[in-house]
Amino acid sequence: MGAMDSQFMQRAPHEMLAEYLGDDLAQVNALIRARMASEHAPRIPEVTAHLIEAGGKRIRPMLVLAASRICGYQGQHHHHLAATVEFIHTATLLHDDVVDESRKRRGRATANLLWDNKSSVLVGDYLFARAFQLMVECGSLRVLDILANASATIAEGEVLQLTTAQNIATTEDQYLRVIRGKTAALFSAATEAGAVLAGADEAQIRALFDYGDALGISFQIVDDYLDYGGAGDGIGKDIGDDFREGKLTLPVIRAIASAGGEERAFWRRVLEKGQQQAGDLDHALGLLARHGTLSSTRAEALDWGARAKAALEPLPEHPLRQMLADLADYVVARVY
Amino acid sequence: MGAMDSQFMQRAPHEMLAEYLGDDLAQVNALIRARMASEHAPRIPEVTAHLIEAGGKRIRPMLVLAASRICGYQGQHHHHLAATVEFIHTATLLHDDVVDESRKRRGRATANLLWDNKSSVLVGDYLFARAFQLMVECGSLRVLDILANASATIAEGEVLQLTTAQNIATTEDQYLRVIRGKTAALFSAATEAGAVLAGADEAQIRALFDYGDALGISFQIVDDYLDYGGAGDGIGKDIGDDFREGKLTLPVIRAIASAGGEERAFWRRVLEKGQQQAGDLDHALGLLARHGTLSSTRAEALDWGARAKAALEPLPEHPLRQMLADLADYVVARVY
Question: ipTM of this model?
């Protein structure tokens, strides 16, 4: 808790980024509002406004803006690129909520609950198409290539997640692929494409890709760690959601890898067959403790956070570079 | 029926196209098979193979190939572009079946029924991402712009269809927008992008866009006409599907525009409130006959078919040009 406390004494890095990038961000928000509209299908802005105005932190657009600014970009297309990644992110949220049958997102009822699954599927498709138009306007085939590959990684990761859930044979390699799709692919596409747009050299482009990739992976591992309680500080989501849904996340994958026959039978019953009863979550937490997998998951998150910071090394000195380093610290500070 | 009979005496134009374009089409099919695979998520090829191998006519890929060949294209990227439009088409089918809660497609159980809605949503997203990668490989920003705009038109049309269903205030303008999204936008993107890829001049590009647009519109109007029986030849789908689902198609929109108070009350009850009883479809058919809207819909389809043929005029003489003209005739021959 010590590190968390000291983090809260000062402003969070994403707030510092939002202030530093204030003018850019205002233009990105104006572009988002202009492009999510549809003259002919009023259902579209209803659904998108519900989600886009709901107070996300705009982390992904800020990653684009920061990357392009650090690399000295002087044009205006970073706004289009920033709006692009926010639209892709919002489209995947709409589709995720249909897939997960979610009822809440960012503290509000989800679109699939307020309207219907049909609207969520089709408005998600619309946002993806609008993202596609915005990125074409950037005029760079290499940027388009990065975003096309990220889109494929995201979609493949989502399908893989569908087939690894309730499957105790899931490997760490598959887990990494799932969380790259879920979080890291769009982070790294945002930072890499921002650098490409700015005409950065290959070492800087690679550095910013690696930063986004490691940041996204550490972010997701922290999330999965906190789902089993973490420091028990009540900041995270409800404990045990992943357990109840039979999701194979890193603490469990590692515990299963060390499990004997009786333990395997337990995991098979609760995760694969979904036959859960009172006391099972406590028993699972006991197994994670026995095999030390919560602390090894925590160490893994910290390691990826350190990799994110180290990746920034080839970049020029810049206030935004320091904020990105602080952001990497902030993301993993939740595991202290 | 006379025109239909004579059409059936010879081979259908899409069969002639498939033969003429045989080598190209074989390469497109190989590319489709290679790109729909996913090493890591085996669910993906299962779902896509179910749909892509199900024996669609490959009309859209053939439109790309024909357009680029007529304009003298010598490269290999028309295969990528042809695979792109088939992937986009397949992705929209997967999402449509979720939205419509369909149970059958091309005579086989739909993916949402065989697997689940989740798989249909996410595999659709995957195919769209793969389409995006394929079109980036074509290396033309203008081709990407055409496909981005088509994607937005398709998605907007789908959402609009959702909100015009069960709404008797739907206008002909809205109807046209819906069917452009549903069918014509991808047809016209296929032919326009094929011409652009070939480096055709602006008049030829415009001609091929207009051809695809008019062909798609006539195709969809014919479909909507046949849903109310058409010539009653049993070739089309079951009569009255659109009526039962409360869809506002051209014959009904025109009948409502001419309706008096009592007729409006009937349409409101059966389409908006969905309160249908025995004899309602017959009564509806009587109203269409009274206002002559089946014959005016038929005339509209023929008019768009004629526009498609006329659009081909600026193009050079070519066996494929004749086949495209025959295809336009063939599409509307169903209304004779």
Answer: 0.89
